[in-house]
TrEMBL record:
Entry protein name: enoyl-CoA hydratase
GO molecular function: enoyl-CoA hydratase activity
Keyword Lyase appears in the UniProt entry: yes
Native species: Agromyces rhizosphaerae
Reaction it catalyzes: a (3S)-3-hydroxyacyl-CoA = a (2E)-enoyl-CoA + H2O; a 4-saturated-(3S)-3-hydroxyacyl-CoA = a (3E)-enoyl-CoA + H2O
Coiled coil: none
UniProt xrefs under SUPFAM superfamilies: ClpP/crotonase
InterPro entries per record: ClpP/crotonase-like_dom_sf (IPR029045), Enoyl-CoA_hyd/isom_CS (IPR018376), Enoyl-CoA_hydra/iso (IPR001753), Enoyl-CoA_hydra_C (IPR014748)
Source taxon at top rank: Bacteria
Matches recorded under PANTHER family: ENOYL-COA HYDRATASE, MITOCHONDRIAL (PTHR11941:SF54), ENOYL-COA HYDRATASE-RELATED (PTHR11941)
Family: Belongs to the enoyl-CoA hydratase/isomerase family.
Entry EC number(s): 4.2.1.17
Amino acid sequence: MDDQPVITTTWDGPVATVTIDRPAALNALSRQVLEELGAAFDALADAGAGLRGVVLVGAGGRAFVAGADIRELSGLDADGAAAMGRLGHETVARIESLGAPVIACVDGYALGGGLELALACDFIYASAQARFGLPEVSLGVIPGFGGTVRLPRAVGLARAKELIYSGRMVDAAEAERIGLASRVEPDRDALLAAARATLDEIGTRSPSAVALAKQVLVDATGTPTERATELEIDGFSRAFATDDMREGTAAFLAKRTPEFTGR
């Protein structure tokens, strides 16, 4: 276990930056990292409408997250692996369920658990130096923190199978082409600036509507059309019970800028 905290959260206005700060280990996902990351996103969830977006990054410039901590994993038996898998899934679920949008800013390697962490975010922005992959089969295991669930949603089932079975890495250009990365920027500074610009734009919209849209998108993905339709209708109707809906429609009719509160 690291002597110091490995997750830091900083705020710039309504946008939080969560940094995985284990650069000597290429930000590998140890139990400590997963536990602290889950706690950080629990705290962000408590911020409510005061939070308009999150940037998730890795420290050091060489990796977003290079994977799970193999030294820790190598000592696990089947029961220990199941417990570690549950912890990983609980952590990424906290990210995926956060009402505010989360952008994974990948600079360097996002491998194994690192890619699984990024896939739980709303979108992935990459620097030109980014590299992505799920190489677990080369270690005799399979993805355990959501890779088999979320990668097919991002790139399609056949391509996800090819990437998982082969363990092949893809560069930033290919990641963008196959829909894994939403955009690619030349370097880390441009990457972070692009993520902030996107979150600032989203921040001008209704926080309650963004949160409802995110919930429906997450819950409906992969479900039968009939069930997905009901989820959308439920979310649509819930939006009409919000102050933001009344403010947004009133502002539109009055031809003024809305002042959303997230209520």
